[in-house]
Each structure stands twice: as C-alpha cells, then as structure tokens.
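Sorry to interrupt, but I need a hand with the structure work. Please put the record directly below this note.
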Amino acid sequence: MPLARFDRLPRPAQKALRGDAFPKFAATKSNEGIPNVVPLLSTSLADENTLIFVRMMIWKTARNLLANGRITINVIGPGLYSWIVVGEFAEFVRQGPYLDYFNRKAMFRYNAYTGAGEVGVIRVREARGPVPLGLAAAMFYNLLREPVRADGPGGHGPAVMPGPVLEKFNRRLALKHLGFVEEDGTPVAVPCLDLHARSANDLAFVMPRNDDHPLSQLRPGMKVAGSVFTLAPVAYQVKGVFTGEEDQSGRRQGVIHLQESYTAAPPVPGRRIFPPELS
C-alpha cells in the first residue's frame, strides 16, 4: 500500500490518537542531529491540528523541543497500521483546558508521582500513512532467531547493551521503534517489531521490500535510535549508526552498530547506561 501524505489528520489517525490504548512514540533530535525516540503514551488529540502530551520523565525530549521544536509522533492504530504525524512544538503550558483535560484522567488525577503539571502542545504539519506493521513477518522471523546473550560472541568491545537491555530487545512481545533524521531534518519514528540483538553491540532488522516504506530511507552512516517498551512497563533506548544491509538466509537485513544505551523508565529515566555516567 503506497504511503500517502495528508495536510490534515485522517480519521483513522484521529481515532488512534484519541485512544489511550493505542501506543504512541515521539521522535525528536538534538541540534547536532542525534535522533531520540521514546514512548510518549500520554499524547492525545486536542483537535485535528493540535496534539497535546504531559511533560513527564522526558528530559531529553523536552530539551530537544526547546532547542529546535522538531517532533514526530508515531501512533499504532487499529488494523495493524501506524501513522506518522509530523509536527512543530509550540509551547509548554501550566494552566488552562489542556492541563485540566489530563488532570481529569485516572492516570494523573490525585497522583503526585505522575501528576500532569505541564502540558506540551504540538501543531500538526503533516500526516503520513498508513504504515503496515509487518506483524506476521516479524513473528515468523522472530521464531527463526537464535537467542543471544550479553556475553555471547559477535560483539566488538565492551557491551553497549547489558543483559537486561539485550533481553528486552529480544523479546517477541514488545513494542520496538527505530528513529532517524530525514534529509530535510525531520526526526521520524517507525515501528520495527522484528528489531533484535545480534550481539551486545549490534541490532538487526529485516529491511522492508517496499521502497516507499520509511525505513527504506536509511543509508550507511546515518545516526539511528532504537526504543523498546514492554508491558511491565520497562523501556530502554539505544543509539548508534546504521552500517548498511547484509544478506541473511536470503533476506535483506539492516544492521545498527550501537554506541550508547539509556534507561527510559522509572526510577531513573534518561540515565545513560553505557558509556557509564561519571558520578
């Protein structure tokens, strides 16, 4: 199915953005062009031109938004398709109807730890989709994979992904996204359910057959971020470089050489795991 572009949010995308049960991920970038991809589950539709979200445990995302305002939301909706919503960050607000909206929700009401104290506002520029999840193919390839351990062979240098991080990326029932920056500077997050660890320092995934798929834009040397979110909920993010494609049993497989890993969930979201932060 060709990837269409819309100057307004199509109804299926609006439906997904209104539903709390549909997962949303945010892609931003630093001024140096480093992508950042994290779950942003609070993202909601205010109107067909505006998205809102709670500023909660997203320090790097907030810094990127205040630096350059570039953001894309990916939402997985009904029918096993996702939608890419390209936006421009407008502001953070501490009062008004947007804050009231979130504070009426059970997740935030009377909860000092996850209370909605500040709300981000995004102006929608463009919607793209629908992007097929490739769920059937991901399940098939996941069954073929051999398990990898953090201390197993195939890595290069110290382990970027310690055992708990590697184990989450190799889970078959987990939401995984890849993020990168397009040629025009737009950060993009794309679901990649078959993303998995080849070693403690490398991730791999099956390249899409359709040249219109967003991941077909990846070129060797591009900076990439990978995010995993489990039902626990536990989330991690890794960053590295796309090194290109390899043939793996007749399949085109994309490879990412990792350089950094981060926590993306409590108790210390955003803490760098590797290289270790200096105390």
Remarks:
- The chain has two domains: 4-131, 134-274.
